Amino acid sequence: MSDSGASLKQSFLGALQASLSVLLTLGYGVLSAKLRLVHPRSVGDVSRLCVDVFLPALLITSIGRQLTLEGVGNYAPFIVWGIVYTFTSIALGALGKKVMNLPDWIVPAVAFNNTTSLPLLLMQSLAATGILKGISGGGQRDAVERAKSYFLINSMVSNTLMFALGPKLMDKNESESANGRDAEAQRDQDSDENASLLPALVRIRVHSVQSSAHRQFTKLPTRAQSTLSFAGDMVNPPLVGAIVAAFIGLVPSLHKSFFADMEDGGVCRAWLTSSISNIGDLFTALQMFVVGSRLCDSLDPEQEIGEIPKRGVAFVWGVRFLFCPAVAIPAVYCLARNNLLGEDPVLWFSMMLMPVGPSAMMMSSLVEMNGNSPKDKMAVARFLTMSYAISPIICFVVVVSLKASEMAVRG
Fold first, then answer.
1. Contact residues for 308 (Cβ-Cβ < 8 A; gap 6+)
2. What span, in angstroms and rounded, lies between the C-alpha atoms of 85 and 406?
3. pLDDT tens digits for 265-289?
4. What's the helix, strand, coil split of the chain in %, to 5?
5. Which domains are delineated in the chain?
6. CA distances from 79 to 111, 150, 153, 236, 347 (A)
7. Which among 55, 149, 151, 195 is least buried, having the fewest CB atoms inside 10 angstroms?
8. What sign for the dihedral angle of Cα 112, 117, 118, 123?
9. Quick check: 20 pLDDT over 60?
């Protein structure tokens, strides 16, 4: 067998092993839920903990370490890329829903893919197989760290757009959704107050401030209310984590304090940075485990499930696994060959993979917020289960992206 053929076979086997590793991690979550080792409410709490605490911590350490004043320009291309492919996917989803008369959840299913836990775990597995040598430009560990920072920034962009636009993409009465969210928020507030350890006077004062702020908000013009609501939807813990990471990375004195060796001035590295890194490292595998646990109920044959149109499933999978890589890989390759994306092949490889993969797990939350029926919610859960079950086919995209990046390096 020729060297190129052997290299292709090795790349394919490595990508397949990495994809299976991701699927097995997901399966461990399903198995644990089946054996009742985890409770549904506990799974929800851990999932929220992953997004609100572990992911921001991972963003701070990964992005902050890679982001410097000298290299800040490297991040611009894939921030723009993330926005472009997301809005393109939204347009495709809206068009497909209208033409084929598909359920309302099809649009966000097409628009938003898993941009966090799956690609991060995939990169870790790819590093273990050793197939990133051709584009690492040095040690594979450093290449994986760069790829993680790229995927995390893309995740921040995707999650921000998902939280802001996702509920609006569902074809329901917006005021009903808003009322549902207000009612849910009120129940959460009541629950928090009932369980609060704060003194009664403090709770009363907090409630008074909240009520006053709400009254002032309702006095604003409708356009101003809509603008502020949209801005509020975009603010979320991962975005805050990314902002903190950028601040630490771009301020030279802070970057040195957090990430330099002790003898070079890294006074925070051994204690503060290390502690943040410890909880950030919990995110990747734990989030995929939680995803598997949440998908477990959809495998119950006794559950009543709404219609899952075959043409809708085929449409989503066609966009996510075929159309996106068919467009992304040649586009990024051409940009890289024309020296428009810098000189980091790991960046090119990451950009080729970013639009590819199954729909985001946030889909289930969007359906919940939209007030769909229990059957629709279970249909979405079953659809997500099937999507993640076939996710190992991404290994073909990994191989093609890897070879395209290597070709771009050789010029």
1. 379, 382, 383
2. 23
3. 889 988 999 999 999 988 888 888 8
4. 80, 0, 20
5. 10-176+238-298+305-326+340-372+390-410 (1.20.1530)
6. 16, 9, 7, 17, 12
7. 195
8. positive
9. yes
State the pLDDT confidence band at 229, using cuts at 50, 70 and 90: low
pTM over 0.90: no
For the segment 260-269, the average pLDDT, to the nearest whole number, is 87
Angle (CA) 268-269-271 rounded to 5° is: 75
Q: Which neighbouring-strand residues pair with 113? A: 359
pLDDT of 325 over the 60 cut: yes
Contact 400, 333 (CB under 8 A): no
**CB under 8 Å to 106, separation ≥6 — which residues?**
93, 96, 97, 312, 315, 316
Closest CA to 56 of 233, 244, 232, 257: 244
295 CB-near residues (< 8 Å, 6+ apart):
26, 29, 30, 381, 384, 385, 388
Higher pLDDT, 89 or 207: 89
Orientation of helix 3-34 relative to helix 283-295, angle to 10°: 60
Given this model, what pLDDT does residue 210 score? Answer: 56
